[in-house]
């Protein structure tokens, strides 16, 4: 059980305590530690107010001061330190009308979503577990802190968070918690797409996605999420973990989808990555020979191709045509890549001007077409990449 990260963070808790306040580790890091999972970011909860935290530490960043969160920079690491907080009435099924700072740990953990996420731990690794989170961890159960209907009515994102923890941790959802999810799923329509996507990304790449995805379908969740709302999501079978981008690409390759990717409010870079993945999938049935594969490896990012091929079982289950595994598999992809004579058009021994001069012709759309033909010939080893060889090849193969 690795506690290296907690050991590194301990002095922060100690310094807060020396000023007479309480401070604990809390949330995902404590849960993952107790589960012997790898810990990533450490969250700290404290009775000290944000102003008090700022006065205790020399290097702080007020990332969310009004909500109680200050980042403490300590030994070049960033730690989120949040003041014990209680929440007022919720509005719109997604946010409290107000938050106020409290001096009592119990009140703070009471507002947290699931029992497994509501365990606090001190510098001696002693846990403060008011809602039997440790027992739920041992039984692999996801259960809300308090009444599930009330907790989901406050913030409907918790429904999706519950399903994503189910996927990531391979836990099952306690009956009442699940029933409330079924009854209240519609409330996710009040959430921002950005918050939804954060959870869907984690859900779709979780080890137990088969179950969680099935639950999303069973709950008809996609009906209430922009972009997916009009699609017949039931037709898409997902039963292995994958990156979010791959999921959306498979969805688009399978279904006739008019919705623009921008509705997901993901970055342009991510949108274009998804489009590349869709092109690769659409291209697969046309890869019928070694040179077809060579061209694919040249035209697209090799890692994207490898990723798509890894998900051949999902493509097949969804009746998306793929290529023969004899022609395209992890090994042939890597071999083809290593044998590429050039990696991009700029490496060709000729350019458009050379062609115009050699053929004594004015520029025009033909230049691009001929360049592409030359590129294919060089990449597939029909001609070697030297000026003279290419021009000889052009003279005998290209008619303008
Ligand atoms: P991860 O390992 O993915 O970071 P996490 O449990 O740390 O999982 P975060 O989203 O980082 O999840 O949130 C940190 C903690 O804040 C949670 O463990 C939980 O105690 C609390 N929390 C987060 N979101 C909510 C929410 N919507 N409602 C109630 N509590 C929440
Ligand atoms: Mg976290």
TrEMBL record:
The CCA-adding enzyme C-terminal domain sits at: 254-394
Supply the name of the protein.
CCA-adding enzyme
Which gene does this sequence derive from?
cca
**What are the recorded Gene Ontology BP terms?**
RNA repair; tRNA 3'-terminal CCA addition
Which residues are in the tRNA nucleotidyltransferase/poly(A) polymerase RNA and SrmB- binding domain? 170-228
Residues bound to CTP are 28, 31, 112, 155, 158, 161, 164
The reaction(s) catalysed by this protein are: a tRNA precursor + 2 CTP + ATP = a tRNA with a 3' CCA end + 3 diphosphate; a tRNA with a 3' CCA end + 2 CTP + ATP = a tRNA with a 3' CCACCA end + 3 diphosphate
| Cofactor(s) of this protein | Mg(2+)
Q: Which domain of life is it from?
A: Bacteria
Q: Which HAMAP family match?
A: CCA_bact_type3
* A GO molecular-function descriptor: CCA tRNA nucleotidyltransferase activity
Q: What is its EC number?
A: 2.7.7.72
Q: Where does Mg(2+) bind?
A: 41, 43
Name the job this protein performs. Catalyzes the addition and repair of the essential 3'-terminal CCA sequence in tRNAs without using a nucleic acid template. Adds these three nucleotides in the order of C, C, and A to the tRNA nucleotide-73, using CTP and ATP as substrates and producing inorganic pyrophosphate. tRNA 3'-terminal CCA addition is required both for tRNA processing and repair. Also involved in tRNA surveillance by mediating tandem CCA addition to generate a CCACCA at the 3' terminus of unstable tRNAs. While stable tRNAs receive only 3'-terminal CCA, unstable tRNAs are marked with CCACCA and rapidly degraded.
Q: Which Gene3D superfamilies match?
A: 1.10.246.80, Beta Polymerase, domain 2 (3.30.460.10), cca-adding enzyme, domain 2 (1.10.3090.10)
Q: Which InterPro entries match?
A: Bact_CCA-adding_enz_type3_sf, CCA-adding_enz_C, CCA-adding_enz_firmicutes, NT_sf, PolA_pol_head_dom, PolyA_RNA-bd
Instruction: Give the family from UniProt.
Output: Belongs to the tRNA nucleotidyltransferase/poly(A) polymerase family. Bacterial CCA-adding enzyme type 3 subfamily.
Keyword annotations from UniProtKB, A to Z: ATP-binding, Magnesium, Metal-binding, Nucleotide-binding, Nucleotidyltransferase, RNA repair, RNA-binding, Transferase, tRNA processing
Binding partners and assembly: Homodimer.
The record's misc note reads: A single active site specifically recognizes both ATP and CTP and is responsible for their addition.
Quick one: which residues bind ATP? Answer: 28, 31, 112, 155, 158, 161, 164
Q: Name one Pfam family in it.
A: PolyA_pol_RNAbd
Which enzyme class, named as a word?
A: transferase
Residues of the Poly A polymerase head domain: 23-143
